[in-house]
Amino acid sequence: MSTVVLTDVSKNIASDHASIQSIGGVTATLHTLQGGRRQGVQLLELSNSRFQVSIIPTRGMGLWKARLDDLPVGWESPVKDGPVNPSFVNQAALGGLGWLEGFDEMMVRCGLTQNGPPSPVTEPFAIGLHGLIANRPAHFLAVHEEADRLIVEGHVDETCLFGMNLRLVTRITLLKDSTRLEVEDEIINMGNGMADLQLLYHWNFGRPWLDGGAQFVSPAVEVIPRDKIAARGVNSYDIYDEPMVGYHEQAFFFKLKGEPDSNKTTVMLRNDAGNKGLALRFDLDQLPYFTLWKNTAGYQNGYVTGLEPATNFPNPKPFEKTQGRVIQLMPGARHLAVSSLEVLPEKGDVDRVQHEIDRIRNGTKPFVHHEPVAPYAVV
pTM above 0.90? Predict the structure, then answer.
């Protein structure tokens, strides 16, 4: 395996542009955006013969948009001038909701020390919505070349004096001729004391995967509405509406079933016709909690759904601590989280994943709570 280092702050290496190609034809192209709030943002385009994904080293190694053949994968955010440079995102603004000013990614990580709503009692500092990691740039970026794949490695630190000292090491892999992308993350406690860890993957999708009648398919064991608003839609938690101006977001918490030998699971978003879909796979030992976010608002306001595997539910951090859902990392300890996205462009692909989920489900019917209940939701 050969390696090209594109950024290494410790060695004063910082590339603006680069192009790398594996023997098998997988390419990685780095370029720097100019103008508006995207000024100075780096994009690394990872591509094989069919599938392309844009990685944002400047925004916590998030995944901005993807495309399979002529099909866009992602969503249309009201943030039209992105990807937004974190220097233009004041996370303390809007009552701690300033994170939303830069939110337009297909996949954005929430964390690392907090991933829920703003919490003024977070120790030792108040942290806004969904944490800090998505607005921290990578200080190390490299591309590893193998014959049939490229692996993009990025390091992003969430550190401050008297506070957190965590590092995200991510490896994003694309194989030749594949419609699947793998994200492998290690979170490392680099400090001398215990560290809180909360990590949530906010995978976000809109048209053409999301439409009226689209369905969320999962091996659910339990489904819990996050709040009273979500409770109104719990009877159709797995079915999506057409765009509706004035729609108020709804979120549902899940207990999912995994494979009996590995505890790995699969969920899917499929369109109404059942001829297009997206499959998300992850390990319930690493990411045991799952949230489904539905925001079927008008197109211009963000017609989108979020599939969100996590180490916890995105409740206020103090509540999650009382429920034992905040990971405590020893000094030097690591938490591994691996997930993959597969694009399903044909009905046969959707049917294949449906059979996969049915096999994991093995006849299990989900117990659907009609009101928020503890210990899952704040009541």
Answer: yes
